[in-house]
Each structure stands twice: as structure tokens, then as C-alpha cells.
Here is the input.
Amino acid sequence: MQEGEYVKDRKAETQPAAVPETAKQAGETLRAMCPWAEPSIWTERMLTALINGVKGGVWFSLIDKVQRPSTLEKAWQGVKSKKGSAGADCQSIQMFEVEEERNIEFLSEQLRTGTYQPHPIKRVWIDKPGSREKRPLGIPAVRDRIVQTAIRMVIEPIFEREFSPRSYGFRPGRGCQDALRQVDRLLKEGYVWVVDADLKGYFDSIPHDRLMEDVCQRIADGPVLNLIEGYLKQDVLEEMKYWTPEKGVPQGAVISPLLSNLYLHPVDVAVADAGYEMVRYADDCAPGNVRARWGEAPRSRLAEAGCKPP
Here is the structure.
């Protein structure tokens, strides 16, 4: 080696590249802003796009996140933890679990090749609390609950980012107690005129075309849209008879709460724009001040649900 030649520090060469502290802080900030986003799906790059906005406000290329075995495995763990009954195919949680790795890989392959088709939903009737009436409950097959959970994990942050703070039902990190605390706060602030509204048969009355228009405002991935629409038009098995619903989202399906919140989102926006307070838990709502000026969009949606606005 000649004098003056650059000599590399081999010890330094073997040291792993350090991540700047500012980068860690930025990633932690993104996670704090979107704590409900699944980290294995929503990377820092995707979270940045979620917060800053994407071109045209529409998301493409989502099906690859849904069909990943890792996403389906995470979805399966969520479905398994909630237990639940077998669907129309009679496959229970325990039966799926026997060969869970093979079953998940098969689901992933079906989604990749476009051969996946949901089974009919098994409809049962359960008691409605405080009433003699019965409430319809749809039970999807275990495999369909897994795929729906995977879809929800991928698309929920896109809509959750925009949902109103007035909405509390079926939302991550929110619940009934939060809604009650907000009602109590508003009463203490002097809101004394309250309308207690419950949209009759809301889940069963949502029009499919209008709902899909709302979904398409943010999602432009064809396979994902086809899956969602397929769940809306999924056959129902009731007392050994099959029928296809023309409207509504099945109560009991994993994807239904997110879609039902999406359809009522314009109501939340209209009430806020009118300057009035409202606390909404799913299809139950308590608008403060009965003289709220309801716009045409929420008026039509309430009418479709069988509820007259004040």
C-alpha cells in the first residue's frame, strides 16, 4: 500500500446503517395520527399518502394488500377471537382452524386468480331488546368473514380519516360510552331541545347503487369494488330457501358497519354545516335543536330509511 492511500475503516464498514432520530419521530407521529390503521398493511408511505391526500382523492391498487396471506392471517385471528357460529357452508371456526395455513393460502390463491365467490349468508332471527319484535341477523361463512375483515382492514382508514367526530357507532377507538359522555357534555352546555331518532330498518333499506357511488368516490380498485358489491348482492339462505336482496347490507356481516356509516356520512356533514350538534351511534342519533335545516341529500337518505326529518 502506497503512502497517502485512503484506508477504509473495516470496523465502521460492518456497522449497520443508523436510522436518523427524526425519521423515527416522523413515523411515530404518523402512527399517532392514525392509530386504527393496521401496521402490517398501512406502511409509513401509505400513511403519508392518507394524511396528505392522494391524486384525485381516489385509491388504486388495494387488492394486493387484501389478498396477502399475512393480511388474511391477521384477519383470521380477529375472526377466531370473536368465535361465532358457522355459516351456510356449515364450516365452524374449529373446522377452519384444523388446516388454517392451507385454508388461508387457498383463500389467497382464489383472490389472486379471481375465482373467489362468497357463500350465501345464513339468516336467523334474534330477539330485539325492549321489544317483542325480532331482528334479522346474517351469518356469513367463516371464510367470507375472513375476507371481509381483510377488506375492512385495508379500506377502513381511507373512510375513517374523513368520518365525522359526531359518529360513534362501529368505529375504532369509539363506543357507546363515548357517545353518552358527549350527550352529557352538550346538555351541560345548554342544549335542551333534543330529537331522539332511530332509523327503522336502516340496514335493510340502504340502496346498493347509492352506496356503491359513495364507495367509488374513494376506491377505484376494480377487484375490491367487485368484492364489496358481491357482498351486497350475496344470496340469503333462510329456512332452506334462497333469495337475493335488492337493497340493504346484511346485519352481522363484518363489512356492513363500515358501509352503513359511510352511507350516513352526508347526514353528519349536513348537520355540521347547518351549525347544529348531533351525536350518532350507528342508526340512532340525537340531533340537538329540533329546528335543524336538513339539506336535500340527508333528507332523501333519511326518507329512504323510513324516517322523516324534523
The chain has 14 helices and seven strands. The beta strands are 121-127, 134-139, 197-198, 236-238, 241-243, 278-281, 284-287.
